[in-house]
Amino acid sequence: MLDAGAVDPDFVRRTLDESTTSKWNITVASSRAEALESRPEDYDVVCVDCGTDIRSGFEVLDELGGDEGLAVPVVFLACERAEGASRQVVERGAKDLVVKDDTGRARLEPTLLQAVRGHREVQAIRSRNIHLERFAGVVAHEIKNSVGAALNALSAREMLQEDGTASTEDLEGLVSTAQQALDRATRTVDRLLDEASNGLSDAPATLGSHDVGGLVESVAREQRPAFESGGVDLVVEPADPDVEGWIDPDLMLQVLDNLLDNARRFTPDGGRTTIQAIRCGARVGVRVSDTGPGVPEDLRDSVFVGNAWDPAGKRGLGLGLWVAGQAAHRLDGQIRLEASSPEGGAAFVVEVPAADALSNYRSIPATGSSSGVVGTDLDSGAVA
Amino acid sequence: MSAEKTVLLVEDNEDNRIVYAMMLEYHGYKIIEATNGEDAVRLAHEEKPDIILMDISIPGVDGWTATQRIKDNPDSQGIPIVAVTAHALPEHRQRAEQLGCDGFLTKPCEPRRLLEEVQKLIG
């Protein structure tokens, strides 16, 4: 909670400490300066307690937002409900206003949760839109490249044929190059359509408790022939204990299938890809690592938006990783690229909620886990 | 037919590399190839080609940075560079000029157009 001249600085703490549904980590900043210095963006939600002076609260809000607007949902606390105050608060970018009386005490936690949930939904939509825009750009680039190469090959053939200097073999080679380029463009379109129908569906996930270790075994069994034909050793490490995830098994299989497929394509002949179900605190995960070339430092941020480069210097679409990321997101999960891999190549980890760590608010897991700053933090591991 | 002059062809797209290289070879040029910026800078220094055809969107060090490095190096700064890019906006052309590029071609670039540019700059 941010204290900006609050009359009752313990209002949030006393109210949320009594919560029977969630555990809240609460940090109180005792001054405006302290609040602004303490990284409010690391928290799930910030309360601005403006006491009796709503204008001072607006000033804090403006300072918190800076030039780029608020990066965290803010709920206003006031001693009384002034005329038009709620409207003014929302116009300033805050989510809601709660008056510090008995009614407000009952409203506080639902209001905070709603603020967090709404903020995350907006962020998810923004993130998806950004990904889609970048992805569309990459696909357009790929198709333009392939079609352009085909046209170039045919144009060069015509030119060399007019000159009368080229060998028949080279002229045929140019036709073959054009065909290959057009085949690649066709494959790009086919894959895009395929992913659109399979991977980008907005159908609701059917969540339940499932053994992630079993899914790892299943996907490894499916893909093993492809690994063997490419001369790559596929190793399934024993799963950690307690790897039951709260997942949609079909979506999870899609994630694992894409991660393994990606690893196989980047692991050289004679190399090794390793997959393992792991436990990560309140989450379960699967690590897929390989002995390939790894991901160059300057491309680490872009591997999930479909513009990775393969080690031979040809552009790889990376559609699979992008789709896997979208599917993981629908499972309340995420895929991360580890800083280093014991195998020497790339190591991707998909993490999803563990079945035994569910709270009533599992659908809005906390992102800010640090303490000692401003605002309130919802503990994602809380159990009702 | 030109005397055998060397063209450093920096292009990550394999099909384009094949096509441009074949067409230039048939017109008497010797071709060396690079698929990324690091190799382009290294080969410019080691091989001292007569001209560099620089694709801008290449892996690793991009074409702009590679051009900058080549033009910053006294050993290679005299080599004409033609920027080849899918970005046709005026600011890209301006950037190419600022970096000291001697030519600017937009993709898709017809082989004939590429050949004309090479012939114009090095004969």
How would you explain this protein's 3D organization?
The complex is a heterodimer of chains A (384) and B (123). Chain A has 384 residues and is of the alpha/beta class. Among the domains of chain A are: 2-100, Rossmann fold (3-Layer(aba) Sandwich); 205-357, Histidine kinase-like ATPase, C-terminal domain (Heat Shock Protein 90), CATH 3.30.565. In chain A, 45% of the residues lie in helices and 16% in strands. Chain A contains nine helices and 13 strands. Chain A has helices spanning 11-17, 32-37, 54-65, 85-91, 102-163, 168-198, 212-229, 249-266, 319-330; strands at residues 2-3, 24-27, 46-49, 74-78, 96-99, 208-211, 233-236, 244-247, 272-280, 283-290, 334-337, 347-353, 375-378. In chain A, strands 7-9-10-12-11 form a five-stranded mixed sheet, covered by helices on one side. In chain A, helix 3 links the parallel strand 3 and strand 4. Chain A is elongated, with a radius of gyration of 27 Å. In chain A, 40% of the residues are buried. The model of chain A is unreliable at 1-5, 307-317 and 359-384 (pLDDT under 50). Chain B is an alpha/beta fold and 123 residues long. Chain B has one domain (6-122): Rossmann fold (3-Layer(aba) Sandwich). Helix content of chain B is 45%, strand content 20%. Chain B contains five helices and five strands. In chain B, strands 2-1-3-4-5 form a five-stranded parallel sheet, sandwiched between helices. In chain B, helix 4 links the parallel strand 4 and strand 5. The mean pLDDT of chain B is 92. Classes of the chains: A alpha/beta (384), B alpha/beta (123). The A-B interface holds A 141, 144-153, 155-156, 159-160, 163, 165-166, 170, 173-174, 177, 180-181, 296, 298, 309, 312-315 and B 12-16, 18-20, 22-23, 26, 35-36, 57-60, 86, 107-112.
